[in-house]
Amino acid sequence: MMRLPAFEYRAPRTIDEAATALAERPTESMLLAGGTDLLPNMKRRQQTPAVVVTLRSVGGFAEIRHGDGLTIGAGATLSSLVHDPRIRSDYQGLWQAAAQIATPHLRNMGTLGGNLCLDTRCTYYDQNYEWRKAIDFCMKKDGSTCWVATSSPKCLAVSSTDTAPMLQALGATVSLVSVRGRREVTLEDLYANDGMHYLTRQPDEILAGVQLPRAEGWRSAYWKLRRRGSFDFPVASAAVAVRFDGDRLVDARIVLGAVASRPMSTPKAVDLLRNSTLDDSVIAEASLVAAELAKPMDNTDFELVWRKRMVHTLVSGALHEIRGDDVSEARRRLARQSLLAVS
User: Fold this and answer.
1) Tell me: the pLDDT tens digits for 171-201?
2) For 64-71, which contacts have Cβ atoms below 8 Å and span 24 or more sequence positions?
3) Distance CA 286, CA 273 (A)
4) Which of 215, 243, 209, 220 is nearest to 67 (CA)?
5) φ, ψ for residue 335, nearest 5 deg
6) DSSP type of residue 340
7) Domain 218-335's class?
8) Got the DSSP string for 166-216?
9) pLDDT (tens digit per residue) in 236-277
10) Nearest residue to 37 via CA among 125, 140, 138, 110
11) CATH 3.30.390.50 occupies which residues in the chain?
C-alpha cells in the first residue's frame, strides 16, 4: 500500500489567502484542487511538497459564466463542463475533450485547472519509487539521464492534458494570480516544450481561470487516441477549430496533443485551410502537413511510428466532422463513444 509523505496542509478560503499561503514557501508548496494527479504522484514520491495548499474551499473558484464569451473558474470540475448544455452546443470540441478524460468518478473530482497543469508523463517516470530507483531514476526526478533518449539534454516527458490543446485551438487565455497581482496570458504561452519545466506559471502563481472568446461562427472538434475507450491518457490527439463565412473557411487552428512536452500548433496546415471550402483534397493535404510536425517519442503507449501516422487520421477525422460529415462510426471505433453534440 502506497502512503502519502508527511506535509503541511493549508486551506485558504479566498484566492488572496491562497496566494499569500503559496508565497510563503513557493518552491516547497504545491496546489491541490481535485487531487487526481497530485495525490497519486505524491504516493509514488514523484512530487513531495512540504506544503499542500488546497483550493477546494476558495469561494467562486468553480464558477462557469456565459456572457460575451465564456469564463471558467479553474476549480470547475470536468463533470460540470460535460454537463453544461451551452458548452456542449457552443464549444463542442471542449465538451468532447472533457468528456473523454478518465472516468465519471475522476471527472467528478478532477478540475479544469488541474487538467491544464497536469504533470507530463513518461514510461520511465510514471512508476513507483522502487521501480524508478532500480533504473537509477530519470532526469525528471532524482536522476540525470532521460531514458527515452539518453543523449538528450532535456526531459522528453509528454504533455497528456486533453483540455489544453482544445482550449488553445479555441483561442483561450488564462488568469494567473499571485501576491504580485494578476496577469493574463494566452493559453499557448502557458506551456514550454520541456518535460520538466513544462509550465511558464511561476511557483507563486495560481491558475485562477480560463477565458474564451465568443464561439459565433466557429466549429470545433477533438479527436483522441488511447488504448482503451475510457480512463487512459491520450497518446496522440488533435484539437481543431474552424471559422466559416458562409461556405468559405476564413480562419482555423489545429493543435496536436500528446506528441511533445507541450501542445503543438500547426501553422502550415492552417495556411492550407484558409480561404478554402474544406473539400476532400484540402482536408487530406492539411492532415498530412499537420502530421509532419508530430514527433512522438518512445515514452508512452503504442509504437511511436504508428502514433505519428495516426495524427493524420485524427486531424482528418476532426475536419470531416466539422464539415458536417457523418463520422459517428469512426468515432465509435476510436473513442468507444458517439460524442455527438446537441444540434
Assistant:
1) 999 999 999 999 999 999 999 999 999 999 9
2) 68/214, 69/211, 69/212, 69/213, 69/214, 69/215, 70/211, 70/212, 70/215, 71/209, 71/210, 71/211, 71/212
3) 7
4) 215
5) -105, -10
6) P
7) alpha beta
8) HHHHTT-EEEEEETTEEEEEEGGGGB-S-SSS-B-S-TT-EEEEEEE---T
9) 999 999 999 988 999 999 999 999 999 999 999 999 999 999
10) 110
11) 218-335
CA distances for 324 relative to 4, 67, 84, 106, 294, angstroms: 49, 27, 23, 31, 26
Q: Running DSSP on this structure, what letter comes out for residue 27?
A: G
Q: Is 81 exposed, middle or buried (0-12, 13-18, 19+ CB in 10 A)?
A: buried
Q: What global pTM score does this model have? A: 0.96
Residue type, 248: R
Residues of the chain with CATH 3.30.465.10: 64-117+158-212
Going by C-alpha positions, the residue among 56, 51, 37 that lies closest to residue 6 is 51
Q: Rounded to whole angstroms, what are the CA distances from 268 to 190, 243, 293?
A: 22, 17, 9
CATH 3.30.310.50 fits domain 64-117+158-212: no
Sorted by sequence, the CB contacts under 8 Å of residue 179 that are 6+ apart come out as: 19, 20, 23, 204
> Which of 232, 278, 240 lies closest to 256 in space, CA to CA?
240
Residues 249 and 243: their CA atoms lie apart, in Å, by 6
* Nearest CA among 272, 236, 238 for reference residue 252: 272
Angle 304-308-311 from CA coordinates, rounded to 5°: 140
Cell numbers that stand for 105 in this block = 468518478
